[in-house]
Amino acid sequence: MPSIKQLGAALLALALAGTAAAAEIHIGYQKSSLNLIVLKSRGLLEKKLAAQGNTVKWTEFAAGPQLLEALNVGSIDFGMTGDTPPIFAQAGGTQLVYVGYEPPKPQASAILVPADSPIKKLADLKGKKIALQKGSSAHWLLVRALDQNGLKWDDIQPVFLAPADARAAYESKAVDAWAIWDPYYAAAERALKPRVLTTGEGLSANYTFYLASRQFAAQQGKQLQQVFDALSDNDDFLDKQPRETAQILSKAIGLDVPTFETVVSRRPSFRVSWLTPQVAADQQRIADRFAELKLIPKTITVKDIVLPPQ
């Protein structure tokens, strides 16, 4: 498997002439962007960029779909999402490319119901209101859960809400269930004591993907290489210092340390790698199913926007 530094070198090979000038890299992240949040908190990228006169601007988003919409309009250059947002973005015409991924983390997302809910199994979701972020990894988890339990998408009442609003609806029992990912899932476990109908285990790999605008990947290969060099350095800290990682995340996001210890424990690794043919094929299956359900406007070919090893 090529290393992250090799990935950076491949991106550098794409750079156009004259891109060595100083630049500000705009990076989007969300509360589930653990690698990026720790990178930001430790200041590693700023140090690497400063040597070439480059700077970084960080912007937080509620979820992946909002982040990729910002990438679409040029507000950010680079970011991290789960598996489903780039599929919706590609189908919508966003000019983006996959530039890396982290290993699967199926335990890091779940479908929750209140402890006293009459819903006991996934088949009981028929006719129920389920809160979720449209176009998020939770969207795919819910589709898979329905498919595996003999239900159609039209058998439920999806209520599309950003995570904070979805939690409020769940707590007030305005919805019957909630499909959600970490750290919101872990925070709800600690505070609300829900019953977990299912995690992504056996349903969704729940990959983390790193994405860039096509223009940025083509024109700013040197700056993108610096991002991946910093991520490579950060990986060692994340894998070897889980307690310190949880403390950094707690301070940055505002949830308690035990919540983030749970979040970190549900991730086998933070190592960023090239997309393999298998990972691209997994993404294609998600895209094909969303197209079949007419939840995206057209069929897409995922490999068309996967940056290949150089």
UniProtKB/TrEMBL annotation:
The keyword Signal applies. The keyword Transport applies. Its main location: periplasm. GO terms for molecular function: ATPase-coupled transmembrane transporter activity. It comes from the Bacteria. GO terms for cellular component: membrane; periplasmic space. Keywords: Signal, Transport. PANTHER family: ALIPHATIC SULFONATES-BINDING PROTEIN-RELATED. Belongs to the bacterial solute-binding protein SsuA/TauA family. Part of a binding-protein-dependent transport system for aliphatic sulfonates. Putative binding protein. This is Putative aliphatic sulfonates-binding protein. The lineage of its organism: Bacteria, Pseudomonadati, Pseudomonadota, Betaproteobacteria, Neisseriales.
